[in-house]
Write a structure and sequence with these properties.
The protein is α+β, with helices and mostly antiparallel strands and 271 residues long. It has a seven-stranded mixed sheet. Strands 8-10-9 form a three-stranded antiparallel sheet. α3 links the parallel β4 and β5. α1 packs across α2, α4 packs across α5 and α6 packs across α7.
Length: 271
């Protein structure tokens, strides 16, 4: 069950979930309970997911904002305990957040996420229908989370236009998506090298195709923990690629996940 959270005690449960989901050890990384309480009293959205024993197993949290004079929700955190992820709880929380936001008369939610996290990209693009045109370097600085440690906290800014037709198609899709056949001819600008982990290449920074594919590895969190130098190499090479193409008028519009090949590919298209 997913329901709005309103009490200080519920907010304290969120703080404990933050620590469990991300492994935070530094108090500066955690959004404290009093801040959660105040923000939901002034237009924020805080939803909790509970199991059959009424134990909180996930949450989503956003705060009100403005973008170019338009009201938005800025989704700061989506956290789900590992055992609950396979059932698609993250998507369910985002859809509940969408409904709560639309009920406020707001049609845009934004959030940041690590572009090297392939499963997050799959959720954001394939299941929800986001687009991305902004890349932020090291936006959160150093983090105490083992999931973020060892490389700069570079992030995509995901834009979720809640009433856009492509968003409606994605969230209502019952089976495999039918994509434009021309997507298959898009060149991969940075085909990775095989190894114990996929290895990055510098890539072609000035391709002129209308659509291009940018490759990222599956399992980046494991790479950060077990091969931090390789993780940093992935971060810096993909940073150059994304910044180059975004700077030339491209944006990320789709994502293709291949678990067997241990890779994902972003589809970038000219605006």
């Amino acid at each position: 069950m997913i329901r709005p959270l309103k009490t200080l005690d519920e907010c304290r449960q969120i703080v404990e979930l933050e620590k469990r989901v991300w492994g935070y050890t530094d108090a500066e990384d955690v959004v404290p309970a009093p801040v959660l309480v105040v923000s939901i009293k002034r237009g924020g959205v805080l939803l909790g997911a509970f199991d059959s024993s009424d134990t909180m197993i996930g949450f989503v949290y956003s705060i009100p904002g403005w973008k170019n004079g338009t009201p938005t929700q800025w989704s700061h955190m989506l956290g789900v305990l590992p055992d609950a992820r396979a059932a698609g709880l993250g998507r369910q929380l985002k859809l509940a957040q969408r409904e709560a936001t639309l009920a406020m008369g707001i049609e845009l939610i934004e959030w940041t996420y690590d572009p090297l996290q392939a499963f997050n990209a799959h959720l954001n693009f394939v299941k929800l229908g986001t687009v991305v045109e902004d890349y932020e370097e090291n936006i959160y600085g150093e983090s105490s989370s083992p999931l973020h440690r060892g490389s700069p906290t570079d992030r995509f800014v995901a834009e979720w236009h809640l009433r856009a037709p492509h968003v409606e198609r994605r969230i209502n899709a019952a089976g495999a998506l039918v994509r434009d056949a021309s997507v298959g001819s898009a060149p991969v600008v940075n085909p990775s090298k095989p190894g114990a982990w996929l290895e990055p290449v510098e890539g072609e920074l000035a391709h002129e195709s209308r659509r291009v594919l940018v490759e990222v590895p599956v399992g980046f969190s494991d790479i950060q923990l077990q091969a931090p130098d390789l993780a940093l190499e992935w971060r810096m090479t993909t940073r150059r690629i994304f910044q180059s193409y975004f700077g030339r008028g491209y944006r990320a519009v789709d994502f293709f996940l291949s678990r067997e090949a241990r890779r994902g590919q972003y589809l970038l298209a000219q605006r």
